Amino acid sequence: MNIKELLDCDWSPGLEEYIVTMRGEITKIDNHFGWYHISCNACSKKIEAENGVYNCHICNKECKFPLLKYKIHLKVKDKTAESSVVLFNPVAEKLLDTSAHKLLNRLSLDNNDVPIQIQSLCKKEFIFKLKLNNYNLQEGLENFTISKVFVPVENLEIQYQSRKDKKGKSLLEDENEPKEQKTKRLIKKRLLMSHSITWKTLMKINMSMMVLRIEREET
Protein backbone atom coordinates (compact mmCIF):
# COMPACT_ATOMS: atom_id res chain seq x y z
CA MET A 1 0.00 0.00 0.00
CA ASN A 2 1.32 3.46 -0.83
CA ILE A 3 0.76 6.56 1.32
CA LYS A 4 -1.94 8.08 -0.90
CA GLU A 5 -3.97 4.86 -0.73
CA LEU A 6 -3.54 4.84 3.04
CA LEU A 7 -4.79 8.42 3.40
CA ASP A 8 -7.68 7.97 0.94
CA CYS A 9 -9.05 4.73 2.40
CA ASP A 10 -12.64 4.63 3.67
CA TRP A 11 -12.48 2.31 6.64
CA SER A 12 -15.38 0.19 7.81
CA PRO A 13 -17.09 1.64 10.93
CA GLY A 14 -16.76 -1.73 12.64
CA LEU A 15 -12.96 -1.80 12.42
CA GLU A 16 -11.10 -1.22 15.67
CA GLU A 17 -7.64 -2.22 14.49
CA TYR A 18 -5.98 -2.83 11.13
CA ILE A 19 -2.47 -3.70 9.94
CA VAL A 20 -0.95 -2.31 6.72
CA THR A 21 2.53 -2.26 5.21
CA MET A 22 4.06 0.58 3.26
CA ARG A 23 7.46 1.67 2.02
CA GLY A 24 8.71 5.22 2.42
CA GLU A 25 11.57 7.59 3.12
CA ILE A 26 11.92 9.45 6.42
CA THR A 27 12.10 13.14 5.52
CA LYS A 28 11.90 14.87 8.90
CA ILE A 29 12.02 14.33 12.67
CA ASP A 30 9.12 16.35 14.09
CA ASN A 31 10.40 17.49 17.48
CA HIS A 32 7.35 19.58 18.39
CA PHE A 33 6.37 16.98 21.01
CA GLY A 34 9.95 15.95 21.83
CA TRP A 35 11.52 12.56 21.09
CA TYR A 36 10.84 10.82 24.41
CA HIS A 37 8.39 10.75 27.30
CA ILE A 38 8.31 9.62 30.92
CA SER A 39 6.14 6.59 31.66
CA CYS A 40 4.95 4.62 34.66
CA ASN A 41 7.03 1.51 35.30
CA ALA A 42 3.87 -0.44 36.20
CA CYS A 43 1.33 0.39 33.46
CA SER A 44 3.65 2.09 30.90
CA LYS A 45 1.30 5.08 30.57
CA LYS A 46 2.71 8.57 30.16
CA ILE A 47 3.15 10.50 33.41
CA GLU A 48 4.26 14.03 34.26
CA ALA A 49 5.94 15.48 37.31
CA GLU A 50 3.83 17.49 39.75
CA ASN A 51 5.93 19.43 42.26
CA GLY A 52 8.83 17.12 41.53
CA VAL A 53 6.78 13.97 42.09
CA TYR A 54 5.63 11.55 39.38
CA ASN A 55 2.09 10.36 40.06
CA CYS A 56 0.34 7.81 37.85
CA HIS A 57 -3.37 8.56 37.51
CA ILE A 58 -3.99 5.08 36.11
CA CYS A 59 -2.37 3.24 39.02
CA ASN A 60 -3.49 5.97 41.48
CA LYS A 61 -0.15 6.09 43.22
CA GLU A 62 3.27 7.67 43.11
CA CYS A 63 5.68 6.23 40.57
CA LYS A 64 9.03 6.01 42.33
CA PHE A 65 10.88 4.52 39.36
CA PRO A 66 9.63 6.30 36.21
CA LEU A 67 10.94 5.08 32.86
CA LEU A 68 12.29 7.11 29.96
CA LYS A 69 10.89 5.86 26.64
CA TYR A 70 11.09 6.82 22.98
CA LYS A 71 8.21 8.52 21.22
CA ILE A 72 9.56 9.86 17.94
CA HIS A 73 7.29 11.65 15.45
CA LEU A 74 8.42 11.17 11.86
CA LYS A 75 7.44 12.52 8.46
CA VAL A 76 7.51 9.82 5.79
CA LYS A 77 7.00 10.17 2.04
CA ASP A 78 6.85 8.04 -1.08
CA LYS A 79 6.12 8.91 -4.73
CA THR A 80 2.43 9.46 -4.00
CA ALA A 81 2.16 11.52 -0.79
CA GLU A 82 3.53 12.32 2.68
CA SER A 83 2.23 11.36 6.11
CA SER A 84 3.17 11.34 9.80
CA VAL A 85 4.00 8.22 11.79
CA VAL A 86 5.10 7.56 15.37
CA LEU A 87 8.00 5.39 16.47
CA PHE A 88 7.46 4.06 19.99
CA ASN A 89 9.99 2.60 22.40
CA PRO A 90 10.21 -1.14 21.51
CA VAL A 91 10.70 -0.53 17.78
CA ALA A 92 12.90 2.55 18.26
CA GLU A 93 15.29 0.72 20.61
CA LYS A 94 15.85 -2.01 18.01
CA LEU A 95 16.27 0.48 15.18
CA LEU A 96 18.68 2.77 17.06
CA ASP A 97 20.37 -0.03 19.01
CA THR A 98 20.30 1.95 22.26
CA SER A 99 17.80 2.99 24.93
CA ALA A 100 16.30 6.46 25.29
CA HIS A 101 17.81 6.67 28.79
CA LYS A 102 21.35 6.06 27.51
CA LEU A 103 20.87 8.47 24.63
CA LEU A 104 19.65 11.24 26.91
CA ASN A 105 22.58 10.74 29.29
CA ARG A 106 24.98 11.56 26.44
CA LEU A 107 23.42 15.01 25.99
CA SER A 108 24.11 18.12 28.04
CA LEU A 109 21.36 19.30 30.39
CA ASP A 110 20.50 22.36 28.28
CA ASN A 111 20.46 20.49 24.96
CA ASN A 112 16.91 20.08 23.68
CA ASP A 113 17.92 19.15 20.14
CA VAL A 114 17.18 15.80 18.57
CA PRO A 115 20.20 13.49 19.07
CA ILE A 116 22.29 12.86 15.98
CA GLN A 117 21.50 9.12 16.19
CA ILE A 118 17.83 9.92 15.59
CA GLN A 119 18.56 12.61 12.99
CA SER A 120 20.57 10.04 11.02
CA LEU A 121 17.29 8.27 10.17
CA CYS A 122 16.42 11.09 7.76
CA LYS A 123 16.77 10.37 4.04
CA LYS A 124 16.70 6.64 4.76
CA GLU A 125 14.09 4.34 3.25
CA PHE A 126 12.32 1.65 5.25
CA ILE A 127 9.40 -0.73 5.00
CA PHE A 128 6.95 0.14 7.77
CA LYS A 129 4.37 -2.16 9.29
CA LEU A 130 1.66 0.15 10.67
CA LYS A 131 -0.90 -0.64 13.33
CA LEU A 132 -4.00 1.47 12.75
CA ASN A 133 -6.31 2.07 15.72
CA ASN A 134 -9.48 4.04 16.51
CA TYR A 135 -7.49 7.27 16.38
CA ASN A 136 -6.79 6.59 12.70
CA LEU A 137 -9.79 4.50 11.63
CA GLN A 138 -12.65 6.32 13.32
CA GLU A 139 -11.34 9.87 13.70
CA GLY A 140 -9.47 9.89 10.38
CA LEU A 141 -6.26 11.27 11.90
CA GLU A 142 -2.67 10.46 10.97
CA ASN A 143 0.25 9.77 13.34
CA PHE A 144 0.09 6.08 12.46
CA THR A 145 1.79 3.76 14.94
CA ILE A 146 4.81 1.85 13.62
CA SER A 147 4.77 -1.72 14.90
CA LYS A 148 7.77 -2.98 12.90
CA VAL A 149 10.51 -1.58 10.67
CA PHE A 150 12.31 -3.49 7.92
CA VAL A 151 15.35 -2.42 5.94
CA PRO A 152 14.72 -2.98 2.20
CA VAL A 153 17.16 -5.43 0.63
CA GLU A 154 17.39 -4.32 -2.98
CA ASN A 155 19.21 -7.43 -4.22
CA LEU A 156 16.54 -9.70 -2.78
CA GLU A 157 13.79 -7.61 -4.37
CA ILE A 158 15.56 -7.73 -7.75
CA GLN A 159 16.01 -11.51 -7.46
CA TYR A 160 12.35 -11.93 -6.51
CA GLN A 161 11.20 -9.86 -9.49
CA SER A 162 13.56 -11.78 -11.80
CA ARG A 163 12.18 -15.15 -10.62
CA LYS A 164 8.65 -13.82 -11.02
CA ASP A 165 9.37 -12.67 -14.60
CA LYS A 166 11.00 -16.01 -15.50
CA LYS A 167 8.05 -17.93 -14.08
CA GLY A 168 5.62 -15.81 -16.11
CA LYS A 169 7.70 -16.34 -19.26
CA SER A 170 7.81 -20.09 -18.65
CA LEU A 171 4.03 -20.26 -18.23
CA LEU A 172 3.56 -18.28 -21.45
CA GLU A 173 5.86 -20.65 -23.34
CA ASP A 174 3.96 -23.65 -21.98
CA GLU A 175 0.67 -22.19 -23.21
CA ASN A 176 2.06 -21.60 -26.73
CA GLU A 177 3.81 -24.98 -27.00
CA PRO A 178 2.14 -27.52 -29.39
CA LYS A 179 0.30 -30.28 -27.55
CA GLU A 180 2.28 -33.18 -29.09
CA GLN A 181 5.62 -31.49 -28.42
CA LYS A 182 4.58 -30.74 -24.85
CA THR A 183 3.56 -34.39 -24.32
CA LYS A 184 6.94 -35.64 -25.58
CA ARG A 185 8.79 -33.18 -23.35
CA LEU A 186 6.87 -34.26 -20.26
CA ILE A 187 7.49 -37.95 -21.01
CA LYS A 188 11.22 -37.34 -21.45
CA LYS A 189 11.26 -35.40 -18.20
CA ARG A 190 9.69 -38.32 -16.37
CA LEU A 191 12.28 -40.65 -17.90
CA LEU A 192 15.12 -38.47 -16.65
CA MET A 193 13.61 -38.32 -13.18
CA SER A 194 13.33 -42.09 -13.00
CA HIS A 195 16.36 -43.89 -11.56
CA SER A 196 15.63 -47.15 -13.37
CA ILE A 197 13.29 -48.10 -16.17
CA THR A 198 12.52 -51.54 -17.58
CA TRP A 199 12.38 -52.48 -21.26
CA LYS A 200 8.64 -53.21 -20.98
CA THR A 201 7.99 -49.76 -19.51
CA LEU A 202 9.94 -48.15 -22.34
CA MET A 203 7.86 -50.05 -24.90
CA LYS A 204 4.64 -48.89 -23.22
CA ILE A 205 5.79 -45.28 -23.42
CA ASN A 206 6.67 -45.64 -27.11
CA MET A 207 3.28 -47.22 -27.80
CA SER A 208 1.54 -44.35 -25.97
CA MET A 209 3.37 -41.82 -28.11
CA MET A 210 2.43 -43.70 -31.29
CA VAL A 211 -1.25 -43.78 -30.28
CA LEU A 212 -1.20 -40.04 -29.61
CA ARG A 213 0.37 -39.42 -33.04
CA ILE A 214 -2.23 -41.60 -34.81
CA GLU A 215 -5.12 -39.89 -32.99
CA ARG A 216 -3.77 -36.48 -33.98
CA GLU A 217 -3.42 -37.54 -37.65
CA GLU A 218 -6.99 -38.89 -37.71
CA THR A 219 -8.39 -35.61 -36.36
TrEMBL record:
InterPro entries: Euk_RPA1_DBD_C (IPR047192), NA-bd_OB-fold (IPR012340), Rep_factor-A_C (IPR013955)
Presence of the UniProt keyword Kinase in the record: no
Superkingdom as given in the UniProt entry: Eukaryota
Pfam families: Rep_fac-A_C (PF08646)
Record's keyword terms, sorted: DNA-binding, Metal-binding, Zinc, Zinc-finger
Database matches in Gene3D superfamilies: Nucleic acid-binding proteins
CDD domains: RPA1_DBD_C (cd04476)
Signal peptide extent: none
All copies of domain Replication factor A C-terminal, residue ranges: 21-137
A GO term for molecular function: zinc ion binding
Family note: Belongs to the replication factor A protein 1 family.
PANTHER family, alphabetized: OS03G0429900 PROTEIN (PTHR47165)
Name of the protein in its database record: Uncharacterized protein LOC104230187
Gene source species: Nicotiana sylvestris
